[in-house]
Amino acid sequence: MTPRPGARQRLLDAAEELFASGGFAGTPVDAVLARAGVAPATLYAHFGSKTGLQAAALAARLRRWDDVWSAAVAAAPDDRARLLAVFDALDAFGTGGTPSRWCAFLDAAAGAPADDGTAVAALAEDTALLRGRLRELAAPVAGEDAAELAEHLLVVVTGALAMALRTDPARATAQGRATAAALVDRWR
Amino acid sequence: MTPRPGARQRLLDAAEELFASGGFAGTPVDAVLARAGVAPATLYAHFGSKTGLQAAALAARLRRWDDVWSAAVAAAPDDRARLLAVFDALDAFGTGGTPSRWCAFLDAAAGAPADDGTAVAALAEDTALLRGRLRELAAPVAGEDAAELAEHLLVVVTGALAMALRTDPARATAQGRATAAALVDRWR
DNA sequence: GTCTATATTGGGATAGAC
DNA sequence: GTCTATCCCAATATAGAC
């Protein structure tokens, strides 16, 4: 059997799970420590601060999201489905670990003080990933208008993420998929 | 000249402005007190807690949003413009007082602990207002499909609000308007 | 109703030993 | 690197007088 992961990895796992479910601001450091089974000083030796831990956890989460989305795209049968696969990925990503209240990257930027650059940077990376891949996937569907369609879909994906605050996440992604489909079908 | 408003009103004004610009969690009570020129005990005598003040401030904000949106609808020349006027209202609402980082209602729900019902209730009222009026305004454009179109637009409006975290608010509403227009024009 | 002054505690971070 | 124990402060809330 695999050995118990080191303290650093356990901290990252605990942070990603708890920050996603309870929100960053709403999750005390103690809760992360308790779940990871680690002493306070260990956290600060590795990450320097709660914010530093958040940055590392978000970086790991972005890689995981990238993988989940890629897999969803690979599983889709045609160009249209590949473009809409982002919503399948959102469903899979949410139900995979602990279901999150809403997007951890938007949560980070919304909760951070105005001068905190780390949260903004993490959200910017997430945005760049979304925008870039949506453009690639939109190309076979919309041709020259790929960038325009991608911007539309970025709004809808972001809307679906935030709609998780207004209603339950499953409904939010389902509605987002429907809205995105309505937009995509303008280009058929 | 108008007399200086009472402490209660000054607290509400200060709270709405500071919570909108700095976020609820990121705004200490002291900052609200300082801006209102009021002593701590006065705040707690009127509102009971910081959360109580937030609830009252959000209620006032919802009324103001309702008015701004109504005015934008009244100023629009035709059915299509009336349906898209929500984005004009968002621009006017944001630039009116202190520009807010993003939607105060979504912020409240995102930042509140899971058991806090007041923030969720305030967001629910905001959602009901959006959904209801979008349906009314969609009727002349989409007829029987008004409810369906309204749900699409609710996602887009929510997306525009959250996009203010990814980019600056002016770009967010502009993109939202464009995306909404693309959807509305499916029903032309 | 409003003030001054103070109580209380949750929670992020550190000191120093092992 | 990791632990135990502790510090420190920010921030919410209250006591009691006017």
TrEMBL record, chains A, B:
It holds the Pfam family TetR_N. SUPFAM superfamilies: Homeodomain-like, Tetracyclin repressor-like, C-terminal domain. Residues 28-47 bind DNA. Residues 5-65 form the HTH tetR-type domain. PROSITE patterns: HTH_TETR_2 (PS50977). One of its GO terms (molecular function) is DNA-binding transcription factor activity. This is Transcriptional regulator, TetR family. The keyword DNA-binding applies. Keywords: DNA-binding. It comes from Klenkia brasiliensis. InterPro entries: Homeodomain-like_sf, HTH-type_TetR-like_transc_reg, HTH_TetR, Tet_transcr_reg_TetR-rel_C_sf.
